[in-house]
Amino acid sequence: NYSAGVQTNRDAWCYNPSRTSVEANMKRMIDFYNAEVDRFSEATKEKDRKSRETMADGFINMDPTKVSWSSSLITRIVNLKTGEFDAKKITRSMYRPFSKCWLYFDAMFNHRPYQMPKIFPDSAAENRVICVSGIGARSGFCAFIANALPCLDMVEKSQCFPLYLYDEDEPAENSPDSRMDSLFGESHQPVARSRTRRYALTDEGLEHFRKAYPGIEMSKEDVFYYVYGLLHSPDYRAKYADNLAKELPRIPCVPGGDRFRAFCQSGRDLAELHLNYETVEPYPLTLTVHGEPTLTDADYRVEKMRYGKNGKDKDLTTIHYNDRITVSGIPLEAYEYIVNGKPALDWVVERQCVKTDKDSGIVSDANDWAVDTMNNPRYPLELVGKVVAVALGTMKIVDGLDKKA
To answer: How does DSSP classify residue 183?
Structure first.
């Protein structure tokens, strides 16, 4: 099985760097929605469903500061279905590359959850998914791995292939997969349901690769990382560019067991970089402090980063973090790693900011994630150096891939 990323059709409401804001926004929206259900129910007494469908248009309050409607939510109001807020449905999500936030993951208030409940059934479920661009993606082909619920546009119209699938309603009381270890601290205790976990790759899929490489010991995880390594090969992407533009990737067997093992190891190394980008050793950049030399926690607050200027051109070696801090010494080679149509560092500059959604008025403040979740007000600044290190490390691996093909 595989799945598209989560499509909420109300991102400003369902996503936020602040867990508290997600809770407050969703409670407010659900309360308003339920009030509309009650009002609509009263107005359509003794009406059949077809009549309710006709009446819904023009009756429902479309105020975008109260709710964000989609066809699925309008269908639910026609069916007079009420909602209920559940704090256990708030989980971490990979919203964009190198940009996590909190998500209210709920089949009723997410427009299309697709198959994600079988991949990330709850906030305690451990998994890894290789996300590739959807068919016809304008940003070009991309592959990026995530260990948190991916948004549909984490990679453009992402199609996500998991390491594991979860089967629910199975006895798993003593299984390690049912443990209640806290990933987020005492106040953000993950929720675990009774479930069993299995590899998503079928036995037949594993046998296909074993036949191609007789005598080579391999596991389903080996195949998973082989795929991730292969999808980063410039030779593979160039050779199958036409196919990758109009269909999901096909996975050939490279000739020779040694090459299979090499791609498998490269895939593991890339996954280690991309999944653990928050804990890698940052690239040593030059920090210039304007004004008082001593920085307080408040001085690390970011509103909107911007690149430096070299005449009329951008100076990509420099980022003005805020009025107090300028970062310089960024190697231009870091911009060679493109993910979802942009250099990896562009995603940091774009997403580590404060912005207000024009329709709902909801504020998304990256500093909330830094302070409340990461307990580190310097997180946005440190992320610059970390993603530079990830980009350089990625390109070092990628540049060696074609020698293995």
So the answer is: S
Query: How would you label 262-290 residue by residue, b for 16+ Cβ within 10 Å and e otherwise?
Result: bbbbbbbbbbebbeebeebeebebeeeee
Q: What is the pTM of this model?
A: 0.91
Q: CB under 8 Å to 221, separation ≥6 — which residues?
A: 163, 199
Distance CA 79, CA 108 (A): 12
Per residue in 44-86, pLDDT tens?
988 888 899 888 888 999 999 999 999 999 999 999 999 999 9
Structure tokens at 198: 């299995």
Residue 310, CA distances (Å) to 313, 314, 317, 389 in order: 5, 6, 10, 24
User: For the stretch 72-105, what's the b/e string if a residue is b when 16 or more beta carbons lie within 10 angstroms of its beta carbon?
Assistant: ebeebbbeeeebebeeebbbbbbbbbbbbbbbbb
pLDDT tens digit sequence for 310-327: 988 999 999 999 999 999
**Long-range pairs for 373-379: beta carbons < 8 A, 24 or more residues apart:** 373/17, 373/19, 373/102, 373/184, 374/278, 377/297, 377/298, 377/300, 377/301, 378/297, 378/300
Rounded Cα–Cα distance for residues 216 and 207 (Å): 12
Strand partners, 288: 326
Closest CA to 57 of 32, 31, 77: 77
pLDDT value for 136: 83
Is 59 in a helix, a strand, or coil?
Answer: helix
Runs of H (alpha helix) within 18-90: 19-43, 49-59, 71-78
